[in-house]
Amino acid sequence: MKPKKLNSFGSFKYLNLPDLQFFIWCNKQYRVNRGIYNTIDQWFYEYGIINIYYRRIQLLAFLDSVKEDLNEPHLSKFIRFGHGGLTKRLNDFINNKD
């Protein structure tokens, strides 16, 4: 599955929210828990996306790309990746984004 154009996220008013409010919004939209959110954010930071605005764009694009693939909608409280699944998904996302 090819991720959506990142420019579509560029105008989101949510990108400028304080961290906790941005996480709460992500939790409601993508059913992501705080640990997964922090791990994704840290992974993109270590990958070299230092600017928080651009990192959040990538985070949203990643969550959007996996939203439909993981679990059936609304069967579990949070999305789940399984052991090692999150890192694999992040690597696949970065390698296939072009």
Major β-sheet annotation = none
Mean pLDDT: 83
Helix content: 40-55%
Element pattern in H and E: HHHH
Counted by DSSP, the helix tally is: 4
The end-to-end span amounts to: 12 Å
Radius of gyration: 13 Å
Unreliable residue stretches:
1-6
**Shape descriptor:** globular
Strand content: under 5%
| Number of domain units | 1
Keywords for this entry:
98 residues, mainly alpha, 0% strand, globular, disordered N terminus
Describe the structure.
The chain is mainly α. Helix content is 54%, strand content 0%. It has four helices and no strands. It has helices at 19-30, 34-47, 52-67, 85-95. Helix 2 packs across helix 3 (52-67). It starts with 18 loop residues before the first helix and ends with a helix.
Provide a brief overview of the structure:
The radius of gyration is 13 Å and the shape is globular.
What's the structural blueprint in terms of helices and strands?
Elements: H1 19-30, H2 34-47, H3 52-67, H4 85-95
